[in-house]
Amino acid sequence: MTTLHFNYKDxxxxxxxxxxxxxxxxxxxxxxxxxxxxxxxxxxxYISAGVEFGEVWDTFRLxxxxxxxxxxxSWIIWVVGLLWWICVALITGTAVxxxxxEQLKGDEFYEIKEAIKFALKHSKxxxxxxxxxxxxxxxxLVMGIILALITWVPYFGQLFLAVMAVPAFAVSLFxxxxxxxxxxxxxxxxxxxxxxxxxxxxTLFESFSVINDQPWRFIGYEILLKIVIVIGVVILGFFAAKxxxxxxxxxxxxxxxxxxxxxxxxxxxxxxxxxxSICPExxxxxxxxxxDWIGMPNILxxxxxxxxxxxxxxxIASFIMGIIYYLIILFVVSLGxxxxxxGNTLIFTVLVKKKDDKNLLEIKEETxxxxxxxxxxxxxxxxxxxxxxxxKETKEKSAPETEN
Length: 404
Hints:
It comes from candidate division WOR-3 bacterium 4484_100. This is Glycerophosphoryl diester phosphodiesterase membrane domain-containing protein. Keywords: Membrane, Transmembrane, Transmembrane helix. By secondary structure, this protein is mostly helical. It has one domain. It contains 14 helices and no strands. Helix 2 runs antiparallel to helix 4, helix 4 packs across helix 13 and helix 8 crosses helix 13. The termini are far apart.
């Protein structure tokens, strides 16, 4: 079992715990599944509004962002894709948290298959916990809108508005509180389920408990965790870019330069990451500067497609290389997700120790032995038992007579 400090120092272990082949692989699979589902639904959202496929491709490539300026039904389809992404992320986080928890308890060989089974089995808890909060918030907002209709009534409506001002203010504060708890549940919910196997109610209870009993520790630890994640992703992204350049250089020793440049240039055409317009300018500048620093600005501004070298063979090779580029990006992001979920497992363990004085790493899982199936005796076995019983009874009766 790992010995923790049960303070902020444990958060820095997240980088080491997240840098694990098992956790990165689980995070990678989750991102890939989420990526495919979200991409398909996002394209459907744009195409349903009459936008041409080629136009969407030129703007976003494989990952369209939110459909601004499109009809309401396009937004609904896009939201479904976003919910798919969130649900897959929560289940993936549960699996990573379970692996981390078992590792902290001393089981370094806990299998990926077992972690995925555990996450799927408890997916209801980790998804419904924030969903219940969101539905409750929506219900409160709808009730507020319905009550607001009363203000249309002449004279009485104005008085009703004045009387209900204070209760409405209190409900508004409560809604903001529920929004905060929902964010906490999304962030730490998978770690709660991964460590305790809680149901929906218990997961909600722990989420409320964390934000009520340890709010500043939670916020401070999460800030430290984000710093660790950024450092890990920046370093891995740098080395991933240099590995691509190294491979290009090694291949250039044998492969003609024109052929190699054509394949890599057309491969870059397929890859494009769009920064949403809602992101602040400083974030945009930060991402752009980082990609320029590692020598990969094409991720944001891909080149135009040029005539493929050796016709169809070069076109296929470029397409495959474009897919590999996407997989490398997912691999780098997977490290960030692995560190995130591993770190939140540590954070929840520390917070439980602080607020409940309970060490989750010392709790042993209860094992229940399955009862052996009751098999009915066969007819021949029953006859043999009856024959033996009768012989025994006859022997017992004849025994006293013999003694006399």
